[in-house]
Specification:
about 190 residues, alpha+beta, 5-stranded antiparallel sheet, two-stranded antiparallel sheet, 5 helices, about 65% helix, about 15% strand, elongated
Length: about 190
């Protein structure tokens, strides 16, 4: 096995372990802090910008359209994945929690596997069907980043609304269920 293949194999094992941790953490409810949910998308966008700036793809109209489609598709997939996240609030303490659905986790992991697999398989190529490999990898990276950003925005919007609704109900003296849950099927109240 050559050095580059060994490096990719070690990287793949580390990523597989991180994915396993992500699945394990995603299957449990996590505390949400609405005021800090902007941080993760900003960090991803900064690293993404640095990555693309460091090794920019060819700036042809076709490549730029392809990259725009990739990020748009990633945002839509992320929005869908975010709709599958269960967001809950305790009306008394206003503590928010989220729990990822198994399908949402699988979508996320599928994107990671495709992106890493493409990087490994295409490492020796310069172009595929006339498309530069750098543009393909950057497109997959934008698809992944759009997915994460779309998920965060969707969950943030729902968490913000649930928090505002719980505060308003408590201020109005209305009876509030012990837990309010909003997931991909819409709002549901549980008493």
């Amino acid at each position: 096995m050559d050095r580059q293949t060994t490096t990719y194999l070690v990287f793949f094992i580390v990523i597989a372990l991180l994915m396993g941790l992500r699945i394990w953490r995603g299957s449990r409810a996590r505390k949400l802090q609405v005021e800090r949910m902007w941080i993760r998308p900003v960090i991803i966008l900064v690293f993404l910008s640095a990555s693309i700036y460091g090794q920019p793809p060819p700036m042809t109209p076709e490549v730029l359209v392809g990259l725009a489609v990739a990020i748009g598709l990633g945002l839509v997939m992320g929005w869908y994945r975010g709709r599958m996240v269960k967001v809950s609030i305790d009306p008394e303490t206003h503590a928010l929690t989220s729990k990822a659905s198994p399908w949402g986790i699988l979508i996320f992991l599928g994107l990671m596997v495709v992106r890493m697999g493409a990087r490994f398989v295409l490492r020796e190529e310069h172009d595929v069907a006339g498309i530069p490999v750098a543009a393909i990898i950057d497109g997959l990276t934008l698809l992944y980043a759009g997915n994460v950003v779309g998920t965060q925005v969707e969950v943030w919007m729902r968490a913000k609304k649930l928090l505002a609704d719980a505060i308003a109900a408590k201020a109005a003296g209305r009876t509030v269920p012990t837990e309010v849950i909003q997931d991909h099927a819409g709002e549901k109240a549980h008493g």
